[in-house]
């Protein structure tokens, strides 16, 4: 286990997030540019802009049984007015942060310490995409019979060749499409919710002065060996009355939590609160292939400052009244005792 940590630490020094970093693990679909500006010394055949290349899809999810192979089709688009030579490059990646941003392992001789898809990807030859055109590229993934059930992930990246015509690439611009693969079988699906925090302007609390800008902060940790996508419904209610409902991560492709990593969702809006009262914020989340559920509820109060001030004043008045009554009773008792003593003397 310590060896894996050392390898992962070493690999982090060799990784770089895909430039133009779309949060690809967030499951955004469509064509997304991940190209960066090309240095001034770059050949004229590469457009010096952020829209040199585009790729689609941003993410592919695929299931392949051990001992079998399948193809994933990626479309690469050349947005320039000249043909461009591209080198397809297979990379592994790891979670770059807890917001779904991947970090590609760019070293050609390095692999992810676990869940490496690059080992199964068949290398591709260079391609030439005509000006203002697109080209489909099929990458074959061959899964050996000995592959363990679970999740594997990697990326197919395209980098422009230099003008010299050799196999060296221009590192100034590249685009990547992520591939998340599952090998079916006896997998471990274990997702923990570490945070269900009700916040206002980034501060977590159990009571707030106003019902404005109240959000939910979620964090899940994947302790299994396959990528998992939590989904469900979040609600706000007062007593038994549901005041607000919101779907969470229900659109496909769903945002996922990679194995041995954590994922957070911030600033999820919560609505339905009044100016005063006790409310319940809860959610039911599902994940995995066996219908696992996570249910949670938390209580939150909305108490305006004027109510607090009024309450403090009322408490102050009550304390003063109690003190007055106590002192009055003590004085009355003393007067009664004095009167009884005077009668005895007579």
Largest sheet: 7 strands, mixed
Give the count of helical stretches. Answer: 2
Order of helices and strands: HEEEEEEEEEEEEEEEEEEEH
Distance separating the two termini: 98 Å
Q: What is the CATH C-level name of the largest domain?
A: Mainly Beta
Number of beta strands: 19
Shape: elongated
Please describe what this structure looks like.
With 346 residues, the chain is of the alpha+beta class. The chain has 3 domains: 2-183, Immunoglobulins (Immunoglobulin-like, Sandwich); 191-302, Immunoglobulins (Immunoglobulin-like, Sandwich), CATH 2.60.40; 314-346. Helix content is 15%, strand content 41%. The protein has helices at residues 2-12, 305-345, and strands spanning 15-17, 53-56, 59-63, 69-78, 84-95, 102-105, 127-129, 133-142, 150-160, 175-183, 191-200, 203-204, 207-208, 214-222, 231-238, 241-248, 261-269, 277-287, 292-302. Strands 1, 3, 5, 6, 7, 9 and 10 form a 7-stranded mixed beta sheet that branches. Strands 13-19-18-15-16 form a 5-stranded mixed beta sheet, with no helix packed on it. The chain has a 4-stranded antiparallel beta sheet with strand order 12-11-14-17, with no helix packed on it. A hairpin with a 4-residue loop joins strand 18 (277-287) and strand 19. It is elongated, with a radius of gyration of 31 Å.
Key features?
7-stranded mixed beta sheet; Immunoglobulin-like; 3 domains; 5-stranded mixed beta sheet; 346 residues
